[in-house]
Amino acid sequence: MKMRKRPNILLTGTPGVGKTTLGKELAQQTGLSYINIGDLAQEGQLYDGYDEEYQCPILDEDRVVDELDEKMVEGGVIVDYHGCDLFPERWFHIVFVLRTDNTQLYTRLESRGYTGKKLQDNVQCEIFQTIYEEAIEAYSEEIVHQLSSNTPEDLEHNLEQIVQWTEQWMKDHN
Ligand code: DAT
């Protein structure tokens, strides 16, 4: 039996913008699988050293890409990561950059336990739209979309839009 073709979706943006919340719900509603790169790296210990400044392990990007490639070629995967230029461009059919107002993001990250430089740098990352710039450098601009992610209504709206997009993609490609 030939498998139906299914799209790969990248959810990216500064930590705290709501990628995981959206990604998991989206996976439930579409039946696509959800992969959190942070969790994948943790499980497989896909690290290459330790960043003393940010007190976190450094991702071994080549191993992450090797680990996922077969699954990505198959299709039907939602990837969640706070970066986007480590992945092969060919993996994704659409890229969403979630955006959150900085006061709101500050509160979310603070309640996650971020303090000091880590908190400031992440909020600055959002203010300077670092991940959006990274996304339009790494992918064709037509497939990169920004989504507001400030309120529960935004979440519902984003879900609805992406579910619709996915259904249309499947119709067009099967
Ligand atoms: P990320 O995976 O981007 O780090 P998350 O999904 O863990 O972010 O969400 C961070 C926090 O913000 C979490 O407490 C849920 C909340 N949140 C996510 N999306 C939201 C939205 N659209 N409106 C309000 N709160 C949201």
Automatic annotation (TrEMBL):
**Which reactions fall under this protein's catalytic activity?**
ATP + H2O = ADP + phosphate + H(+); AMP + ATP = 2 ADP
Q: What class of enzyme is it?
A: transferase
Query: Does the record bear Cytoplasm in its keywords?
Result: yes
Give the residue spans that cross the bilayer. none
User: According to the UniProt record, where is the region LID?
Assistant: 111-121
Which SUPFAM superfamilies does the entry mention? Answer: P-loop containing nucleoside triphosphate hydrolases (SSF52540)
The record's GO molecular-function terms, alphabetically, read:
AMP kinase activity; ATP binding; ATP hydrolysis activity
* Classification via Pfam families: AAA_18
Where found?
A: Cytoplasm; Nucleus, Nucleoplasm; Nucleus, Cajal body
Q: Which UniProt keywords apply?
A: ATP-binding, Cytoplasm, Kinase, Nucleotide-binding, Nucleus, Ribosome biogenesis, rRNA processing, Transferase
A GO biological process held by the record: rRNA processing
The EC number on file is 2.7.4.3
Please give the residue ranges the record annotates as the region NMPbind.
Answer: 36-59
Q: Which residues bind ATP?
A: G16, G18, K19, T20, T21, R112
Gene Ontology cellular component annotations, sorted alphabetically: Cajal body; cytoplasm
State if Transferase is listed as a keyword. yes
Q: Which family does it belong to?
A: Belongs to the adenylate kinase family. AK6 subfamily.
Q: What does this protein do?
A: Broad-specificity nucleoside monophosphate (NMP) kinase that catalyzes the reversible transfer of the terminal phosphate group between nucleoside triphosphates and monophosphates. Has also ATPase activity. Involved in the late cytoplasmic maturation steps of the 40S ribosomal particles, specifically 18S rRNA maturation. While NMP activity is not required for ribosome maturation, ATPase activity is. Associates transiently with small ribosomal subunit protein uS11. ATP hydrolysis breaks the interaction with uS11.
Subunit and partners: Monomer and homodimer. Interacts with small ribosomal subunit protein uS11. Not a structural component of 43S pre-ribosomes, but transiently interacts with them by binding to uS11. Interacts with COIL (via C-terminus).
Do you know which HAMAP family this protein is assigned to?
Adenylate_kinase_AK6 (MF_00039)
This chain belongs to the protein called Adenylate kinase isoenzyme 6
